[in-house]
Queue: 3 jobs
Job 1
Amino acid sequence: MKKYIITFIVCLLTTLATQAQNSIDNLVERYSSSGGSSFTTAVKRNPQTQKVVKVVKTFETDNGGGNTFYKAFKREARTGSWTDKVANNEHTTLLVVEKPQQTRIYMLKRNSGNYGQVKITIIIQPK
């Protein structure tokens, strides 16, 4: 019985650690499929081993959602290191999530005067 309880707790903690990845990524996926936006993915590989070195995903829209994305980033601030900066009329929010298998960097840029313009960059670096 102890074995099952320990397994359950480990599974629960693993699920909580991936919450930032899932909620922000799911939000980007939902908005990118609704139209009026652009979504690109670039994969950098090691030429000798063909292993993935870095994945960069970029999402841009001007159809709104700036506050929605910001709230998602703020909710996930506890899962990694959080930075919020305002310069030149632009808000930049950075969330870095360190995991044993990878580092995920989420960056949200939005215009101070127009929260409809949003750019999200997600960088995934396997370890």
Job 2
Amino acid sequence: MPDWLIRLQEDIKRLWSQLTAGQKWLVGGLTSALLLGLLGISLAAYFLPGGDFLYDGLDDAEVGELSRFLDEKGARYNIRDGAVYVFGDRDKLRAEFAISNRQKPLGGYGILKEYNWSQTSAQFRETRLRALQEELESTVEKGSDLIDWARVQLTEREKGLFPSGDTKPTASVKVGTRGQTLPKESVQGIQWTVANALPGLKPADVIVTDENSRVLSGYREKSETELLTDEQRKSEELLRERRIKACANILDPIVGGGANYTIAADVKLNFDKKAIKEKYIDAENPFEKRRRTEEIEDKTNQPGGIPGTPSNNPDDNIGPDSSSHASNSSMTQETQEVDNEPRLVRETSTEVAPGELETQWISIAVNYVPTIENGEKKYVQRTPEQMAELEKSLKLAAAHIENSTRHHFVLNQVPFDRSGEILAETEARWETIRTNVESAAFLAAALISILVFFYFLRKVFSIKPAEEELVRSEEISLPGPRIPEPSQREFGLRSIGDLENLPPEEQKSRIIREEIENYAKGKPEDFVGILRNWLAE
């Protein structure tokens, strides 16, 4: 063991023996608390990896592949014993890694490797759609810890010989969550993932259900009535805020700030509904409206012999050779005229509401006028002339129409009692002060504990052994042999260490007491000198 460590142990033992029982408990408790805190910080920093858990149970090849993927994404990660932890959006990285890792031995896009040239285009589309479904199922399963399994059904409608009215794709996802509730953000993420995989598919058209076939809340496409209602509410709210702001601009310079008045406004708009119909036309597949057919017949007679002879007569059927008679011929021509019109695919009706003011209610209350009388603050009512002038200005700002059943305006003045608000503000202020004092006291106690610990630690290292505290005397070298100095034993005195099983301080006290008793009996003068020397030491 090195010398400095031995001296350190002796110094610690000596310092510990000099402490009282209370000081020992204080130093021991603080030292233990600091050591436990340092141990906890070390365990959290070294043994417990930071970040969110991503994957576990990976072999070296899979860890290398995942590391390359995370490096490409610029994500911070930590790998320990085959487990990967990431600092960032864990669910997003899982989904992106599942999508990028498409080469699977079974299912997914591995199905497309079995493609053969005898397949038709329709069969290939079905195979591709099934592969896409399995890929999406794997992505959804790895996207959240709450999902055990997932099933995806995709419908990709195409125009056929007789197209229907709706050709947009749809999708449904069924997930198993072991009875747990899937957050709305996770449902929306599933809808976006599936919608981005199929062209033309919107997130609102992806229905997500749990294992009990209950529809989970996510993106939902609002109906035309809901959209129209939202627009009406926005218009009414905008008009209401405009009325309140106009009245506040009048009251601020007169009454003196928002604490001295209140404004309540309610506006109703009557939306006259006007229907606008829109038609979506399929020009590529026209509809046959009318077909008109016309037939033309052309008949001709040709002579069969020499003019003037009996054989040339068409009505004469006698003759030696019937082939010389006249021949009859006819020709029929058919013409068709078709009228087509574009096929109507879908017809929608949209309601447009311009909005008209139906009712307007405005109620304003102002505070009394504050005055100072005899050093005391009081509130005095405004005169009727002042109230009439203020009401006239406010009605003009609020676009009020007199003698109208649609417009209502009320102006009152009341003394505002803010004692409750002041009391609440005072309590909140004291609560804030109390919280700050508690935090400061805790911080001060922690700092004091740390300072006390370092103070005792400094004491340990600052105490020197007794041998180093002896006064060094000058050494004078004289010629001749050096005469050794007499020891205490030669003078009949005992040194510290003769008495065993006693601390040095008690040995010293006992030696002093015995020497004093011996010299006090014989020579009082020597006793006084020895006592002075001991006290000086």
Job 3
Amino acid sequence: MRQVREARIPAALVHAQALPEDLIEVGYVAAAYGVRGWIKVQPHAQDAGALLHARRWWLLQPEAPASRPVAQSAARESEPLCLKIAQSREHSGTVVAQASGVADRNLAEALKGRRVWIRREDFPAPEENEFYWVDLIGCAVSNEQGEALGEVAGLIDNGAHQILQVAYALPDGKPGERLIPFVDAYLRHVDIDGRRIVVDWGLDY
């Protein structure tokens, strides 16, 4: 009877301890692609430009936070991996990539399910008047009258445009939320370096 040997992560790919502080999760490994070690990644965003631009990807297990190193007692199979990307391209809504050291389908299959992170500094520069969502999170939001509206906690894409989820405290101390369309009709100024956004929006909206 034939036996199927489980593929193991090559030791050369394991980079266990220090992780860059600016890692951003951009997708996950959905499957192996082909027989030569390519992997298929499902991006979190419709625009996969960041994935295609970065030459190094960090792969973490779904339960492993990127904010702290893996415990020494963890098995090497669960440690973070740093992949050097030789080539990548878009393919039917996904990104397929070839990584150095991943030479066959079995090894690619062993990476399935891992989350893909890249460094913020490896993102391509945005076009004029375009912004990365990750840069908007945490920005203070105020209106043209100088009234504080809250802080960007997240963004929603409703298909037509993006919407800022602005968190603020209600008078009773409970959390509140304002949903402000991120469109020219309401947007007045975005200062990424200064971490602030000015909008045409009232406190009572």
